[in-house]
């Protein structure tokens, strides 16, 4: 292990891609909230796409590197510095032994991800840059333009969407909702004008998943996130599309959200294009790293 946590941050946790296929046993998949930042950080250091990372919130931890290592940060920008030197997110960094990583300012986003080459139980990284610099940025960065959606959170309609009153359907698609402080990795509680069904019903619990939008008894909404339960008894009015889950994960308490309805076919196309971009990023980073360290 090449990391020593000198001071813990808020809700730091080690996360991976999640473990699927056990929801029928009541076990949720878990995993990272923002899979784009997760995949990007791992790609930049040459890891496989599913290697575990450190998921951080602000205020972030203080981290002491006990060995030379190759790292990358992605997701939220928390004003990271290593021994007083500002460092970029979405760029691979060679960090020398005994360097200290700190996060000084929340600039944007809600969650930052730290990947270490070889994983968090990595072997020592064999490249050391001598001189005064304790960190050296490698000469390439990940371009994530277009992977996040900063305008509206897109969703496909759920089984109870058509049972909302006409005014509630219009409000849901045309008015903003704010993320409340009662939000976490299990779900985002939203506050807005109360929505209503045309008639109240007693429901049997049904399967839910990441992105499920549930209508609570008080007319407010909750969007299920990475640590969601496996079943729920509240009406499902929609599902946030997979491609927009990372954008939602980087939204913070107090932030306003607007929703846009899309078809299942459009949701699949958006996710496919996103995955193609991430695969190309993985290939490009692997090639650049092999080329750089063979010089």
Written account of the structure:
The chain is α+β, with helices and mostly antiparallel strands and 295 residues long. It folds into 2 domains: 3-142, Sandwich (Jelly Rolls), CATH 2.60.120; 153-262, Cyclophilin-like (Cyclophilin). The chain has helices at 35-44, 166-174, 245-249, 264-293; strands at residues 3-7, 13-15, 53-56, 62-65, 69-77, 80-82, 85-86, 93-95, 100-103, 108-116, 135-137, 153-157, 177-179, 187-191, 206-207, 212-215, 221-224, 231-232, 236-240, 256-257, 259-261. The strands form 4 sheets. It has an 8-stranded mixed beta sheet. Helix 1 (35-44) packs parallel to helix 4. 37% of the residues are buried. InterPro entries: CT_A_B (IPR003778), Cyclophilin-like_dom_sf (IPR029000), PxpC (IPR052708). It comes from Hydrobacter penzbergensis. Keywords: ATP-binding, Hydrolase, Nucleotide-binding. Pfam families: CT_A_B.
């Amino acid at each position: 292990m090449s990391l020593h946590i000198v001071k813990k941050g808020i809700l730091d946790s080690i996360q991976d891609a999640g473990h699927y296929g056990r929801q029928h046993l009541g076990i949720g998949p878990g995993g990272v909230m923002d899979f784009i930042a997760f995949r990007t950080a791992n790609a930049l250091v040459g890891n496989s796409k599913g290697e575990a990372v450190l998921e951080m919130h602000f205020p972030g931890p203080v981290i002491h590197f006990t060995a030379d290592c190759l790292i990358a940060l992605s997701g939220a920008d928390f004003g990271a510095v290593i021994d007083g030197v500002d460092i970029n997110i979405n760029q691979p960094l060679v960090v020398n032994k005994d360097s200290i990583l700190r996060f000084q300012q929340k600039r944007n986003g809600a969650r930052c991800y730290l990947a270490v080459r070889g994983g968090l139980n990595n072997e020592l990284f064999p490249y050391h840059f001598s001189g005064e610099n304790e960190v050296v940025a490698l000469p390439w960065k990940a371009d994530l333009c277009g992977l996040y959606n900063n305008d509206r959170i897109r969703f496909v309609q759920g089984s109870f969407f058509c049972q909302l009153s006409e005014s509630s359907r219009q409000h849901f698609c045309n008015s903003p909702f704010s993320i409340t402080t009662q939000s976490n990795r299990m779900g985002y509680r939203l506050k807005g004008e109360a929505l209503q069904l045309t008639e109240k019903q007693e429901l049997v619990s049904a399967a839910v998943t990441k992105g499920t939008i549930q209508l609570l008894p008080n007319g407010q909404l909750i969007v299920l996130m990475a640590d969601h339960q496996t079943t729920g008894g509240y009406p499902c009015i929609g599902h946030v599309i997979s491609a927009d889950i990372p954008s939602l994960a980087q939204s913070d308490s107090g932030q306003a959200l607007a929703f846009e309805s899309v078809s299942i076919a459009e949701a699949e196309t958006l996710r496919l294009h996103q995955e193609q971009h991430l695969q190309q990023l993985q290939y490009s980073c692997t090639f650049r790293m092999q080329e750089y360290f063979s010089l």
